[in-house]
Amino acid sequence: MTIVTFPRHRRRVVAICAATVVLHFVTINWVSGRIGAVEHEAGAETDVIKADLRLAPPPPPAPEVKAEAPPPKPKPRKAPKPPKPAAPPPETVAAVTDPAAVEAQAAAPSEPDATAAASQPDAAPAPAAVESTQPAPEAPAQAEAQARWKVALPPSAKFEFDVKRKDADGTNWSGSANIAWQQDGARYKATQDVGVSIVFARINLLQVSSEGTINESGIAPTTFNEKRRNRSATATHFNQQDKKITFSANERAIALMAGAQDRATVLFQLAGIGRADVNQYGKDMDILVGEDRDAVVYRFQLVGEEEIETKMGKLVTWHLARPPKPGSYNARLDIWLAPSQEWYPVQIRNTEGNGAVTTQTVTSIIK
User: Fold this and answer.
1) Tens digit of pLDDT for each residue in 258-278?
2) Euclidean distance between the first and final Cα of the chain, in Å?
3) Bridge partner residues of 283 (DSSP)
4) 3-class secondary structure for 116-156?
5) pLDDT of residue 131
6) Is the pLDDT of residue 367 over 70?
7) For 100-105, which contacts have Cβ atoms below 8 Å and span 24 or more sequence positions?
8) C-alpha span between 51 and 348 (Å, rounded)
9) pTM for the whole thing?
10) What is the pLDDT of residues 307-329, one digit of tens each?
11) Whether 243 contacts 177, CB under 8 Å
């Protein structure tokens, strides 16, 4: 057997290498142990989170609210003694009666006023839609219950009017009207003629006439005639002795009241009331007006003093109005009377229920 031997300097190199390897191994183990210890300590500090949960304390009890005592009831006061009734005013020349009794006897349907006649030339004016009511029984005692006024009728004259009409659909028409008033203190006659102009022709739409007497109540009609375009003529009779108003168009009879008028004379009756005493306009004026088929109470009210423009110049007037009355008539009638012109009617306007408006304005007065 042969034993191999290394030289001495090689044995020294081998020993140094072995020592170096051992030293590195020991160093690495020591460093690894230190790093693990640090990580373990850091993890122990960061991984564990402690939290203590505590219940919130209960809210303090609400303070008790003491109910306030109701205020004491006020002691009842003694009712004041009613004032003594005032003494009734002394009787005046114009006797005033109950309007309800007047309306009960004459509340009946009416057709559009004569002042609304300037309508379309190819169709007759349509009557206003009103409710029909049964007239009250005829009674002469109740007929005398109509209010009376002092009346000073204006002198005779002839009038010409310019007519402007605007239909409900906006269509405009123009025409003219003529009114004649004649009276001699005992009898009277009134006529009215209304028409529209088309190119060079004039078409008559309405013709009315009234005749009768003059008494202490003013105008007392006897016969009222009316003729509308495309309609038959009608006659209304005022029987002053039997106190009845009758009609050729039907068999109705209405109790005739003192001061009753027709559509042609009511304008001049109002003028006579103003001429006698303008203060009479200060209260509502109820006038029974006979028409072509019925009679109804017109209630006129004073609107005020107004200045209007006419072809005769500016005229100061008293404006009277008859507003619509449910159950009787649905049209409004406005009348302007000129004190400087014997209280003649110088402007007349009829506003129908459908919105159509007809205005007649005076252009000349021949006395």
Assistant:
1) 999 999 999 999 999 999 999
2) 184
3) none
4) HCCCCCCCCCCCCCCCCCCCCCCCHHHHCCCCCCCCCCCCC
5) 38
6) yes
7) 101/142, 101/145, 102/145, 102/146, 102/147, 102/257, 102/286, 102/288, 102/297, 103/286, 103/297, 103/328, 104/136, 105/135, 105/136, 105/139, 105/142, 105/143, 105/254, 105/255, 105/257
8) 100
9) 0.62
10) 999 999 999 999 999 999 888 88
11) no
- Cα-Cα-Cα-Cα torsion 271, 275, 281, 284, nearest 10 degrees, comes to -50
* 78-82-85 Cα angle (round to 5): 175
pLDDT digits (tens, 9 = 90+) for 171-224: 999 999 999 999 999 999 999 999 888 877 888 889 999 999 999 999 999 999
Rounded-to-integer distance, Cα 287 and Cα 218, Å: 12
Alpha helices in the chain (DSSP H): 8-46, 99-106, 140-143, 266-276
Q: What is the pLDDT of residues 60-73, one digit of tens each?
A: 555 554 545 555 55
d(CA 222, CA 237): 6
Distance (Å, rounded) from C-alpha 272 to C-alpha 304? Answer: 18
pLDDT of 312? 97
For residues 231-245, give the mean pLDDT: 95
Beta-carbon-side half-sphere exposure of residue 25 (alpha carbons within 13 Å): 6
**Smallest Cα–Cα separation from 277: which of 174, 173, 149, 157?**
149
- The Cα–Cα gap between 84 and 279 comes to 29
Domains of the chain, CATH where assigned: 143-366 (2.50.20)
Compute how many other C-beta atoms are within 10 angstroms of the C-beta atom of residue 244. Answer: 16
User: pLDDT averaged over the chain?
Assistant: 76
